[in-house]
Amino acid sequence: MNNVKLIASDMDHTLLTEKGELPPNFDQYILELDKLGIVFAIASERALYTLEDMFPEIKDKICFISDNGGIISYKGEVIFKSLLKPADYQPMIRFVEDNTNGIAILCGLDSAYIAGKYKGNEAFLKTFYSNITFVEELDQVITEAAKLTIYFPNKNSKQYFEETFKPKYGYDFSVTAEDAIWIDIMNHGINKGKAMKVLGERLGKDSEQMMVFGDMEQYASYAADSNDHFGVLKSIEKILEIHGKK
């Protein structure tokens, strides 16, 4: 752990507890890492503006890998973005409307754009999109968008992913399914792993200097404690102890 210079953590089921709460005194730990020159990155499907709203006191001290890797911001500056073309996302929106029971969400850099007829879902969606703009015709919106997300209130995103979206879009785009209620469509090759590579190259950190936390099936050197037992924070504590800061 004494060689770690870049730490990244997923949000849901990893950094956040199952109640959606951050570990206690989280900001202070990140400030201590910053003093040591260790970069901490939040990696999430959430939008950049949502993440900045969630970490107001330290947003200029950390990195955000938002929109499933589509946008990377470091200390307040966007250093990478991969935008879907309107010619791609507009037909996708129409496909969602015509062929699924999902709700299309166009993930713009400044706001999430959603058809006005779905305003009844606003309270739930605000957890993930702190800025929401309801529009009359979503498939007519033109904006800088990192991804198209489909929300499935009936919790059947995995079925739609396997049977519909992966066959239709999986060859030309990155398509992922999360938590039975989400499908994300990004440009081809965009994901959190690619984002870590981009960030590492930008900061001059190689993979041997990285520590990454997540809840998906993956190869790992060791398993941290659970999110409800603040596993990420406990690992940060060990790093700070090595440097004599705890």
UniProtKB/TrEMBL annotation:
Signal peptide: none annotated. It holds the Pfam family Hydrolase_3. The keyword Mitochondrion does not apply. InterPro entries: HAD-like_sf, HAD-SF_hydro_IIB, HAD_sf. The keyword Hydrolase applies. Gene3D superfamilies: 3.30.1240.10, HAD superfamily/HAD-like. SUPFAM superfamilies: HAD-like. Keywords: Hydrolase. One of its GO terms (molecular function) is hydrolase activity. This is HAD-IIB family hydrolase. It comes from Paenibacillus medicaginis. The lineage of its organism: Bacteria, Bacillati, Bacillota, Bacilli, Bacillales.
